[in-house]
Amino acid sequence: MLFLPHKVELKNVEIDIYNYIAANVDKVIYMRIRDLASATHVSTTTILRFCKKFECEGFTDFKLKLQQYVKEQTEKHQDIQRVDEMPYIDFLRRTTNDSFQQKIDEAAEILLEVDLVLFVGIGSSGIIAAYGAMLFSSMFTLALPITDPLNTPLTNISRELNKRICLVSLSVSGENQDLIDYINQLKIHQAKIISITNSSNSTISNMSDVNIPYYTGTEMFQDTNITSQLPVTYILEILAKRVYNQKHSS
Fold first, then answer.
1. Is the dihedral of CA 174, 176, 182, 184 positive or negative?
2. Judging by beta carbons within 10 Å of its beta carbon (0-12, 13-18, 19+), is residue 169 exposed, middle or buried?
3. Which residues are in the SIS domain (predicted)?
4. Whole-prediction pTM value?
């Protein structure tokens, strides 16, 4: 809450003070204690008790910490670089290489032999996983997205079906521990694993039967990974069409 990393238990009147400060933080850092008391219709003593709950010795100490908090939030703002088309152009060029096409063929061979495809990803990869499941379902087989791998156990699937499942794991870093645990759970039951990652040198890629890396730069905004999912979308689409064409040509 405000500059504290943890929640503070507040009474109703203190919640009103908190809401006023949060909505008028740029003004509060220049107020006197009597001004804030008047604006929130409480006594200065109530303001001091409120400040102590925020681990401050008094109102002046509270304003200093609040001012520092505002400064830190302002400094978090950063410009996002304009889109650079070259990494995507380079990726598309690499898709014509024999090594890339071989990976697509190997993944297609697995998908032609399974009855159920599960897609798993977290964050933006989870959104693309849902798209992949819709795409595969519409073109050649039943596919389902796993949006919450921590709470979607697969222990009740029959042994026969386990061998007819393929998990498509989407991960930029290839190091997400929740996905690693999920893959381990399926590998024990002899399910096939296809992964699409930003690098072939990662834990998830090494655990997979087939890994399709796309090698584009990782982009972060503050604490969020905003690496483009354009290569992943392309890979899913070309893979779905490859499986469809092979299935109907045979």
1. positive
2. buried
3. 107-249
4. 0.69
Q: Which two tokens stand for residue 3?
A: 């500059």
- Distance in angstroms (rounded) separating the CA atoms of residues 102 and 76: 44
Q: Give the pLDDT confidence score for residue 73 in this predicted structure.
A: 77
50-73 as b/e: b if 16+ CB within 10 A? bbebbebeebeebbebbbeebeee
Domain with CATH 3.40.50.10490 in the chain: 86-249
Distance CA 129, CA 205 (A): 17
Residues of the chain with CATH 1.10.10.10: 12-75
Cα(109)–Cα(111) distance, integer angstroms: 6
> Can you give the pLDDT at residue 107?
98
- pLDDT score for 224: 72
Q: In this structure, are residues 167 and 186 in contact, taking their beta carbons and an 8 Å threshold?
A: yes
d(CA 48, CA 63): 12
Architecture of domain 86-249: 3-Layer(aba) Sandwich (3.40)
Q: Rounded to whole angstroms, what are the CA distances from 37 to 11, 18, 31, 55, 209?
A: 16, 12, 10, 19, 66
